[in-house]
Amino acid sequence: MRNEQGGATVTEPEGAREEADFAHKPPASQRLEEGVEPDVEMGDDTFRFPSARDEYFKAPTFAYENPHLDMTQRGDKPGPKQLPVATATPFTSGLFPRAVIPFDDLLANLDMALQTQIKENPENFLAVVPFGAGNKFFKANPDVNKRVRDFVATLGYNNNGLSVHKAEPQDKPSDKRDFEKPWAMILRANDPDLCSYLVWQQTFAIDRTLAFNIVPFDKNLKPWVIANYCGDAVANNADERRTALVAIKQKLWTDANFRKIADRLMAQQGISGNLNKRVYMATSSFDLTFIDTNNAGGDLAPIWQLTGKPLTNDKDDHREYLAAIRNVTVYVNMNKLKLDKRVVQCVGCKAPTHPGHKCSFPDHPTEAEVGSPAEGVLEEAAEIETIKEVEVVEVEIEAAVVAGPL
Ligand SMILES: [Zn+2]
After folding, report:
1. Tens digit of pLDDT for each residue in 257-314?
2. CA–centroid distance, residue 44 to ligand 1 (Å)
3. Secondary structure class of 47 (helix, strand, coil)
4. What angle do CA 391, 230, 406 make, to 5 degrees?
5. Domain boundaries, the chain
6. CA of 378 relative to ligand 1 center, distance in Å
7. Phi/psi at 403 (5° precision)
C-alpha cells in the first residue's frame, strides 16, 4: 500500500488502499475542476467518458503490473538443490521491495568499454547496486567488488567464471554530489542456477557496511513515474488527492496532443476501441501518491507523484508520452498543479518513488544476527541528500519534443 505519511511502501495490494480511502470519506466531485464536460461526446466517437464522480471511486487498473508494488522472490522458488548451502555467509533472506532501476540508470556514466559489452549481451551480466551507491560509497569502499564476489562464492554454486567488476566511471563524478553515477558493479557467472537465484533473491544485506541489490540489465523495465507536482494544491489528504487525480485525467481526455499520442501508442499495442476509449484506457492506471519531503533549503515541500502504466517500450515514444502529460496545465480548486523540477530518488535503494529518509528497506524483517540492512548508510544518506536537485534540462527537452511536429 501507499500511505499518506510514508510515501510508497509495498505491503498491501493497491485495491485495499482504495477501499480504505473511500470507506469514510464523501466524494468531492462538487469541487472537481470546472469547465470540463466529461460526459460530452467528441466528434463521431461514441465512447462516453465517466462522470467525475464515478471516476473518483475507481481504483487504478493494472496495479498488479506495477513494478513499484512488487516484492522480491517473484516467480517460482528455486528447488532445494538450487538454493545456497547452509555454510554460506549469513545474509538477510526475507522479502524486500523490488528494485526498479531502469537499464539506462544502471549504465549511466559507466566506462564506455563496459557499457558496450553490456549493451551487446545484457543477458550475460547482472548489476550489483549497493545501498547508497554513488561516488562517495565507491570511494570509501574501493574493494567492495571483491567483498561481493567473496560473499557470492560462499553460496555453494559452481564458481567457475564468477567475477564482480568495479563500477568504473566514464567521467569523473563530481565530489560535490555523494550519489553520482555510476551505481552498478557488474557480476559475471557461468552457473545458470546461481544467476537465477541471485535475481530471485535480489537483496543481500550482509552487515552494516554491505547491503546490495542484484538485478538483471533489463531494457524493458520502465518506472511508472510520470510526473511530480508541487504547489498549494498538494496536501496530505486522500480526498483532495483523488479530486486532483480526476482533474488531471479530465484535462488529458480533452487535450488534443495527449489524445493523439495515447491513441497511437494504444493502437500500436493492438488495443481495440475507438479514440475516446483508448484515451480513457491510457489514463485508467493513473494514481497519485503523496510524498512527504522537504526542498533543498530544508523547508516542507511535499509532492504529489503521478504514476501510470507505460504505453510503450520505445524510449522516444515514452518521452513524448510523458511530455504530453507534463505539459498540460491543471487547476485543482483554484490552485495550479505545478510541475516539480525535483526528481524523487531514494539515495539508498534508488527507487524513484520515495526520498531516502522514507526508504522502507531498513523496516523489513532481517535476521537477528545481521541487523538492519545498511542501517548506517541509510542514516547518513538521509542527512545528506533526500531528494535530487533540479533537472531542468530534462524537462525543457521534453517540452521541445511536444512543440515539434508529431
Ligand atoms: Zn529506498
Report:
1. 999 999 999 999 998 888 999 999 999 999 999 998 877 777 888 999 999 999 999 9
2. 47
3. coil
4. 60
5. 2-66+224-344+387-403, 72-220
6. 9
7. -65, -25
